[in-house]
Amino acid sequence: xxxxxxxxxxxxxxxxxxxxxxxxxxxxxxxxxxxxxxxxxxxxxxxxxxxxxxxxxxxxxxxxxxxxxxxxxxxxxxxxxxxxxxxxxxxxxxxxxxxxxxxxxxxxxxxxxxxxxxxxxxxxxxxxxxxxxxxxxxxxxxxxxxxxxxxxxxxxxxxxxxxxxxxxxxxxxxxxxxxxxxxxxxxxxxxxxxxxxxxxxxxxxxxxxxxxxxxxxxxxxxxxxxxxxxxxxxxxxxxxxxxxxxxxxxxxxxxxxxxxxxxxxxxxxxxxxxxxxxxxxxxxxxxxxxxxxxxxxxxxxxxxxxxxxxxxxxxxxxxxxxxxxxxxxxxxxxxxxxxxxxxxxxxxxxxxxxxxxxxxxxxxxxxxxxxxxxxxxxxxxxxxxxxxxxxxxxxxxxxxxxxxxxxxxxxxxxxxxx
Length: 418
Ligand SMILES: [Zn+2]
What we know:
The structure is a single chain. By secondary structure, this protein is of the alpha/beta class. It folds into 2 domains: 2-56 and 342-398, Urease, subunit C, domain 1 (Roll), CATH 2.30.40; 57-336, Alpha-Beta Barrel (TIM Barrel). The chain contains 15 helices and 17 strands. The protein has helices at 78-90, 95-111, 124-134, 153-161, 181-194, 206-216, 220-226, 244-252, 261-266, 274-279, 291-294, 299-308, 322-336, 369-376, 403-417; strands at residues 2-11, 18-26, 29-34, 44-47, 52-55, 57-62, 114-119, 137-141, 167-175, 198-202, 234-238, 256-259, 283-286, 353-356, 382-387, 390-394, 397-398. The strands form 2 sheets. Strands 1, 2, 3, 4, 5, 14, 15, 16 and 17 form a 9-stranded mixed sheet that branches. A hairpin with a 2-residue loop joins strand 16 and strand 17 (397-398). Helix 2 packs across helix 3, helix 2 (95-111) crosses helix 15 (403-417) and helix 12 (299-308) crosses helix 14 (369-376). The chain is globular, with a radius of gyration of 21 Å. The termini are far apart. 51% of the residues are buried. It binds zinc ion.
């Protein structure tokens, strides 16, 4: 398909500039971005009526199929929640659970303007099928730990990186506290062999960091770096309880720090010093984490909280530039995932495009569009999500997924799981 989107505002995310103009999409790629001009041979011409086109959002850390655990066990600390509620139920999951609950997550991602989920979960063949059928991108992060995923990690890495245009995979492990030193060393050796970055949950709770110091005399970031885990970069999820040396390592290794403020607040894990990461020049972004701990996959909530939470100290200065976090969500995540073709709206990039409804009351008046999106945005403003040149969500309708069927299957699978 060849599309022409005209009469639009365009925020490429390369910088803060917003121009009036049009975008042409040919197949999976952006063919033209710029001022209005003559053209022909389009399959569809879409009058954007002054609405804004910008890159899609990317969910930097999530566990998609954990939609099964939404509102199932709330108000517990992380360790109790994981060990007594989540792990026993996950032991019952099969391929079909991951398939349907991933599709449920994708419904929510698409209405949030998300085209890519950096997803840590298992039964990836099932989520590959969900990706195929919905036209949605997954970048899997291995959640290898002492319960599995270490010995076949290299095989999995190749399978999923060769699967399709929409699927990719990175090395990872669940966390230091679920992975023995032996297994951590195996993952580090594989990272070395593949010259690949490694991603994981890192310093989410104070207890996790204290346990690691007891085991190794060092924080998770420091021991993992010492084991060679970050020789080719990588990143951490949560990054709440960092010390000076941890920041140094993230900076030196050019790592991605992903913040999950909704999950951290709900599980009482603490508040990351996001301002410090930004001041140190470390790449930052935001993820929802899974629906079990958030419980929503509404990434606008996490974006807003990440931007304002550092102000909770009440020092009278609001210091986080909303553009930095919006860029983290649109462009910095894919760059760190090796997906540098889905970062910006410009010629030659893949067409992952979100249309923002400027007629939504939350976007009016048009004083500052970027601030409107970060501080006032919600899924209500997402008018269209295009992924890889295909419109998959428009005006509240899903063009590749059957919402009713997904709800029926998920609720029926829950009856067995419970
Ligand atoms: Zn997580």
